[in-house]
Write a structure and sequence with these properties.
Length: 277
Amino acid sequence: MIWFTEYWTENVGLTVKADQVKRIRSKYQEILVLDTPQFGRMLILDGLVQTTEKDEFIYHEMLAHPALLMHPDPERVLVIGGGDGGTVREVLKHSSVKEVHLCEIDEEVILVSEKYFPTISEKLRDPKVKIFIEDGNEFLQERQNYYDVIIMDSSDPVGASEVLFQEEFYRKVKNSLRHNGIMVAQTESPVLQEEYFSKAYREIRKVFRNVGVYLAYVPTYPSGMWSFTIASDFVDITDTKRNIEKVKELKTKYFCDSIYACLFSLPGFVQDILKKS
Ligand code: AG3
């Protein structure tokens, strides 16, 4: 047994007792798999916790379902990042979806997930899924006006993921969306990563007409309070009653109709951050 720490800031971190299962250096990053008594198996990229068996459902459900419910008829979905497969698994719960593209820069993440995280990666080989090992930024350039929903399942905005948090990138996302298209991105912790969070919101607002922020509580991410930013030019994303009757069919454990109905109710201090962004 070892103790692993992710340093959330210079002054605070998350420490877990763990057995090391696998550690490899891919072309892009260090990939670490741990078995922890508290959270089950854990995936770590360059020292940052990406997902754990015990709490992955929270993040993956909250990232995927609101956008897919708000879109009137989502058929083509793109996931950028997310090589572990958790987001793809949730997307496929929507029966209107005909095609899911996964664009992951690092093939090793997919291979590690298929070997060590079978319950998260279980749908990666579904016939509706097509995997592209490419840089998300370049991938979008070749696909204009194609997707109904684009989901950014990236890591923190450092290294390879940094460009995924910038205005120029969101413009490409917008150009790759069809009419009624919606994008959603994970946008970090308003408590411990206020800079990242408010910058992402600011950049997305420069590009899209309707933008909303919502939260979920992910125990293994910095501070536990995690944000998601959803945006669209043509869909009124404030209507959180749309398709609410479908929520039950999704068989989710965190996302539910009451969370959907008040998706955008935010704590005062988070509203304040958005106001001054
Ligand atoms: N992507 C978001 C991970 C961000 C975590 N940040 C951190 N631990 N500092 C997760 C990918 C899961 N599909």
